[in-house]
Amino acid sequence: MPDPTIRDRDDVIVKITTTGLCGSDLHLYEVLGAFLDPGDILGHEPMGIVEEVGPDVTSLKPGDRVVIPFNISCGSCFMCDQGLQSQCETTQVHEHGTGASLFGYTKLYGQVPGGQAQYLRVPFGNSLPIRVPAGPPDDRFVYLSDVLPTAWQAVEYAAVPQGGSVAVLGLGPIGDMSCRIAAHRGAGTVIGIDLVPERLARARRRGVHTLDLQQYGDGLADAVRALTGGRGPDAVIDAVGMEAHGSRIAAAAQGITTLLPDALAAAVMKRAGIDRLSALHTAIDLVRRGGTISVSGVYGGAADPLPLLTMFDKQLTLPMGQANVRRWVDDILPLLTDGDPLGVEDFATHRMPLEQAPDAYEMFQKKQDGAVKVLFTP
């Protein structure tokens, strides 16, 4: 692909120094592949050095170090003013009825070239990029693009009371970081649930009470209640989303869509698609009555059945949605410049050249070699 160039007067061109592989990228690798076109550039977790600025850019200059949020927000519309940058009215994709455009995320979200590349064109150069200080390694800041604000919002939406309890389903990057943030913000009991031994061990080393889903099986709810006074946790964070284990029918339905022509598969996903909902059903079962389920795992089905009788009877609160990156930056940035309480510098399990991205996608999708977080160096 050709290198990007300045297109609008407030664009900036960023030379990428580090860019991440996200669990959401795996949805494109499998379920949402029908929305991809040849030539699409993936990736939405980049940072780097400003190479060039448009004539209207006054807040940045070449040489500045920046992190790029994954949602493309103008910073001045009604939704951005509400702190809902993921719903930016300037970049909403009306053709598909979706929220703000995203870097590297197919036609569904604007088909904007992404950050798994050597260079990236970034619009709204005066308000969108996050300027960070020179000096510390990229690993200190790159997660501001997605992982940190997504996990921060998951914990914020969970509304865990001080000294309260939270169970986190899925200990991939978002679930792992949600555990760290929940503990940092004063949760008394943090329970991490997964079925990958390396991920469980990684969370356990940071003081999380871990439960192996394969070990507990149908007894998981009893084990969680035993840790939370018999009633269940105050909140559950679903950091798994649409590709949960244990939903054979939905998995088969998703698999069938990958065999259809892209146009037909896309239509099926938008009108009749269903997700693997085992994680969400588990969350509904685990959380105490009157509790909160914070959904940060991505769901994409249009015809998902939900146990509304149980949800209504338990009087649950269910906030969800893409992270509003810019909303949380001021809360998070001090934790990255004053020590490293969240352990971001050793958060990545793999750092690889961008040329090895195909191998990294396969490794991450199959949960091989202890892969939790992969960073690419272009």
Please work out how many helical segments DSSP would assign.
13
Structural class computed from helices and strand pairing: alpha/beta
The proportion of residues in beta strands is: 15-25%
Poorly predicted segments: 244-254
Separation of termini?
A: 14 Å
Q: Could you state the order of secondary-structure elements as H and E? A: EHEEHEEHEHEHEHHEHHHEHHEHE
Radius of gyration: 20 Å
Walkthrough of the structure:
It is a single chain. Mean pLDDT is 91; it is low at 244-254. 30% of the residues lie in helices and 15% in strands. The protein is built from 13 helices and twelve strands. Strands 1, 2, 3, 4, 5, 11 and 12 form a seven-stranded mixed sheet that branches. The chain has a five-stranded parallel sheet with strand order 8-7-6-9-10, with helices on both faces. It is α/β, with parallel strands linked by helices and 378 residues long. Helix 5 links the parallel strand 7 (189-194) and strand 8 (209-212).
Short description:
The protein has 13 helices and twelve strands. The chain has 378 residues and is an alpha/beta fold. The chain starts with 11 loop residues before the first strand and ends with a strand.
